[in-house]
Amino acid sequence: MSKGQFDKAFNELTYRRREVLIKFLAGQTDEAIAKSLNIEEVTVRQHIKAICEKFGLENEFSDERRSKRPDLIALFHKYKPELLGDRTLRKTAILEQTTQKSIPDKNFVGRETAIASLNNRDIQGAKVILIHAKGGVGKTTLARNYLKQKFGYYIEFPIAKETQNITPIESLLEERLRQLNEEPGREFGVSLERLRQKLQAKRIGVLIDNLEPALDENGKFIEPHRRYIELLRVLADPSLQSLTLITSRDRLHECDVSVSYYPLEGLSVEVWQQYFDTRNIQTNSSALTVMHNAYGGNAKAMEIFAGAIQVDYAGNVEQYWQMNQGDLLVEADLRDLVTTQMNRLEEHHSLAFKLLCRLGCYRYQDIATVSINGLFSLLWDVPDSQHRRVVNSLRDRSLVEFQNGEYWLHPVIREEAISRLRMSEDWETANRNAAEFWTKSVNKVYIMEEALQAFEAYYHYLAIDDFEAACSVMVYRRKSKWKWHNLEGGENLGTSLRTLGLLQKLMLAATQIIGNVLRGINLVSIHLNLAQSYWIVGNLSVRIQV
C-alpha cells in the first residue's frame, strides 16, 4: 500500500472506528477498549476486522488461524508510527526479531555497491555510519536489509516524522533493553552502560531511522533530545560487536560524536529496467531512461511508477510518460516526498528555503550547472558572511546537487522550487539577479559555451516580460576574437550567436523582441542581426520584409 492509499483509507474511517483504532494502536486490549467506549468486545473485534479490510488487508481471521492485527500494526509503524504506544512498539519489535530473517524485501534491488561500501567502513572500524540522501532514495530499505543480512536481526530506535511526536530516548532505551532481555536502570547512564555491555557480548545490529526531525538547522540535536549524543557515544565504542546505521536527509554536525558518512545515490537505469521486467512492464522504451534521469534514479519513484503503470496503463511505459511528463509531481506520493522536505526546510531554515526556491529560476538546460557565485547572487538579503553557510545547508540536506564547484537542481526539486518562487514576491528580483550574474560572468565570447552562457540572461528577462532588458542582453558588447569588433568596443551578443552558428536561437529571440519593443537604437541592431540570419539560412523573402 502506498502512502497516498494509506492516507485515503485513514481519512475515510468513521469517527467510531478511528476511536477503536487509536486505542488498539496504543496497546489497549479488546476488553479495555470496549469498557472505555461502552460497547461490547465483539463489537470491538468487528470494528478491527472492518479496519483491516479498509486498509487492503484480508479478513482479520481469513483462514481462522492467522490474525491480520500484526499487519495492521506494521502498516501504521511504517506510515504513522506516532500513533503506536510503547506497548505496541515492544510487541512490534519482538515480532520483527522473529520475522526479519525470513521475509525477503522484493523492493531491495541494485545495492551491491552500497553494501560493499558499508562493509568496507565496517572493516575499517566504523561503528556508527550515517546513510545520507534525499527522500525516497532508499536509505531505510538499505539499512534494514543490510542489518538483516549481517546480523540476522537488529534493534531499532525509530524517530517520529514530526518533531513534536518524537519519543524521548530514555523511554526508547528502556524498551530496547527489555527487548534484549535486560532490565533498564533507574538512571539513564546506568541503562546506557547495560546496553554497552549487551552489545559487547553479542553481535546485534542497531538502526536509528529518520534522524532529521531531531536536528536543528545546524545539524545539531534539538534541546529536548540532546541525550541522543550520549547514546551515540556508547554506540561508537570500538569494543562493541554491534554496528549502528543511521538514516537521515540532513547531515549530523555534533563534534562529540564519531560518525562515518555514506552518501547514497539513486539506482541505476539498469536496476530500474530489472525492477520493471519482474513486474511484466515493457522496458524497451526510451521513455524509461528519460524517467530515470528526471527522477535521479529515485527508488521510491521507481516503485510508484511501476504500480501506476501496471494498474492504469497495462504495463505501457511510453503511454504513461506521454500522459504525465508535463507534471513531474503528478503522483501524490512523490509530491509528498518533495513538499514534506521543503516544508521542513521552510520551518527550520528560512534562508536556505528561500535560496532553494530562488534556484528554481535557473533553467539548467543549455548551461546545465551554475557556479557558486550564481547561488550567491540570489542571496541579496543575506549578509555576505553567511552566504556559504546557507549554501551548505542545502548541500547537507541533499536538496541541491553539486560537483566540481558547480551546482544544479534535479528536475523534480526544481519543479516544486519554481512553483513556489512564482507565487512569492521574489520572482522578479531572483530573475533580474540571475540575469545580471550571467551577464557579468562572461567577458568574452570566443566559443559556443560562452555565447550560451551569456544568452541565459535573455531567458530570465523574458520570464518577467522585461523585453527592453532582453533586448539589451542581445546588444551587450564583449571582447571578440575578431580585431575589428574590438575596435568598435567589442562584439554584441547577437553577432556572436550568428557567427557561432546559433541562428535559430538568435532568430527566435530577435522575433520575440521586435514584437514587443517599439523603438530605440538597440532595436536597429536586432533588426540587422535578424536580417543577416535569414540571409544565411536562405530565407530572402523574410529578410526583405525585415
From TrEMBL:
| Pfam families per record | GerE
* InterPro entries linked: P-loop_NTPase (IPR027417), Sig_transdc_resp-reg_C-effctor (IPR016032), Tscrpt_reg_LuxR_C (IPR000792), WH-like_DNA-bd_sf (IPR036388)
Signal sequence span is none
What GO MF terms are annotated? DNA binding
- Name the chain's protein: HTH luxR-type domain-containing protein
Could you tell me which SUPFAM superfamilies the record lists for this protein? C-terminal effector domain of the bipartite response regulators, P-loop containing nucleoside triphosphate hydrolases
Example of a GO biological process term: regulation of DNA-templated transcription
The species this protein belongs to is Nostoc minutum NIES-26
Which residues does the UniProt record annotate as the domain HTH luxR-type? 10-76
